[in-house]
From TrEMBL:
Acts as a defensive agent. Recognizes blood group fucosylated oligosaccharides including A, B, H and Lewis B-type antigens. Does not recognize Lewis A antigen and has low affinity for monovalent haptens. Belongs to the fucolectin family. This is Fucolectin tachylectin-4 pentraxin-1 domain-containing protein. GO terms for molecular function: fucose binding; metal ion binding.
């Protein structure tokens, strides 16, 4: 079906522009080659190994990368509670998306505040990618970009101060090579 659409489109374009079919096919070939060499953004945290500063109410770190917005990771009320994901290898990170918890009281949604998003090639040596002041609301979808293009294997969320940390999902989008 897609091939038929392209064929009809080329015929109509040929009629409209006066270009012959050979010129149109060359143009199409050039456009497809450019598209093939374009960088691709991919979510790289799903299902990866992760851990957190403490585990409250059996809501483990892995729930933040399970693809389900109805589950969540949850720490106890800690000083600087954190959650870390190991992406398995370094990626050029473009953005981090955080989905706040979906259920609970208004105050529990607003616990997501003063959040540092840190990155690094070691879980012990990280630096600030960006900061979210907040507070967030229940069901908030935060889209955060690093201040600089960052190549990192680990991503860490950490709240400054004494608080609970709980989020439904964390997605890390990175630049990956696209092979044609």
């Amino acid at each position: 079906m897609r091939i038929l659409f392209v064929f009809v489109f080329l015929i109509l374009l040929s009629i409209a522009t006066g270009m012959n079919m050979k010129e149109l096919l060359e143009l199409l070939k050039k456009l497809l080659e450019e598209k093939r060499n374009e960088p691709k953004i991919k979510e790289v945290a799903y299902g990866k190994s992760c851990w957190q500063s403490s585990t409250g109410w059996d809501e483990y770190a892995s729930r933040a990368v399970d693809g389900n917005l109805n589950t969540k990771m949850h720490t106890y009320k800690d000083q600087s509670p954190y959650w870390i994901v190991d992406l398995g290898k370094p990626y050029k990170i473009k953005r981090i998306e955080i989905f706040n918890r979906q259920h609970g009281g208004r105050s529990s949604g607003r616990r997501l505040h003063d959040l540092d998003i840190m990155v690094g090639n070691s879980s012990n040596a990280m630096h600030l990618c960006t900061h979210y002041r907040g507070p967030a609301e229940l069901r908030a979808h935060l889209v955060l970009e690093c201040q600089n293009d960052e190549k990192a294997r680990y991503v860490k969320l950490m709240i400054r101060g004494i608080e609970y940390l709980h989020v439904a999902e964390v997605k890390v989008f990175a630049l990956v090579k696209k092979y044609g």
